[in-house]
Amino acid sequence: PGLGPVICAGIIAEIGDIHRFPNDSALAKFSGLTWREHQSGEFEADTTPLTKTGNAYLRYYLIQAANSVRQYEPEYREFYSRKFRESKTHYHRRALVLTARKLVRMVDALLRSNQLYLPKGQRRNLA
C-alpha cells in the first residue's frame, strides 16, 4: 500500500524467516517499536520513550513505510490522524510510530499467510 520495492525488500530482508517470531508483538519488539514502562507503585508515566533496542534498519524501514502508507491508505491515514490528536507530546513522531506498529501487524499477517496486500475494497470481491 504505497510502498516501493526498496522499502519492501528491506523489510523482508531484515525480518528473514517470519516463523522465528511467535507473534506480531515479538516482531515489533525485534524492530524496537515498543515502549519502556515507567511505573512506581500507583504511578504510571503518560509518555514513555521507545526502547530502540533491536534492529535499527528494520525500525527505519517500518517507520518510513508507515509514513508512506498513511498518505495512500485511508485506513492508515485515519489511524495516524486519530493518534496525532491523542498524543500529548511529540505528536508526529508518536503517531508515526503507532502507525508503524499497526503496519507490523499487517506485515506479520501477510508474511505468515504468504499473501499479497489487497486494499480493503478489493478484499471482499475475492471471497
UniProtKB/TrEMBL annotation:
<dbReference type="Pfam" id="PF02371">
    <property type="entry name" value="Transposase_20"/>
</dbReference>
<dbReference type="GO" id="GO:0003677">
    <property type="term" value="F:DNA binding"/>
</dbReference>
<dbReference type="InterPro" id="IPR003346">
    <property type="entry name" value="Transposase_20"/>
</dbReference>
<dbReference type="GO" id="GO:0004803">
    <property type="term" value="F:transposase activity"/>
</dbReference>
<feature type="domain" description="Transposase IS116/IS110/IS902 C-terminal">
    <location>
        <begin position="1"/>
        <end position="80"/>
    </location>
</feature>
<dbReference type="InterPro" id="IPR047650">
    <property type="entry name" value="Transpos_IS110"/>
</dbReference>
<protein>
    <submittedName>
        <fullName>IS110 family transposase</fullName>
    </submittedName>
</protein>
<dbReference type="GO" id="GO:0006313">
    <property type="term" value="P:DNA transposition"/>
</dbReference>
